[in-house]
Amino acid sequence: MNDWQRIWNDDGSISCFSPVKAIAYTLSLLYRLIINSRNWLYDHQILKEVKLSCPVISVGNLTVGGTGKTPCVIMLAQMLKEHGFKPAVLSRGYGSKSTEPVNIIADGSKVLLPGKLAGDEPLLIAQSLKGVSVITGPRRILTGQTAINKFGADILICDDAFQHRQIFRDINIVLLDSQRPWGNGHILPRGSLREPWTELRRASAIILTRSNESSESNNFMDKEAWLKEIPLFRSSHKAKDIVPGNYTKPLPLASLKGKKVCVFSGIAQPQSFRNTLLEAEAQIVSFDVFPDHYRYNRKELDQIKNNFLEKGADFLITTEKDGMRLSEFKDILDTVYLLRMEMEILPDKSLLEDFILQKLATVRQ
Question: Whole-prediction pTM value?
Answer without folding.
Answer: 0.91
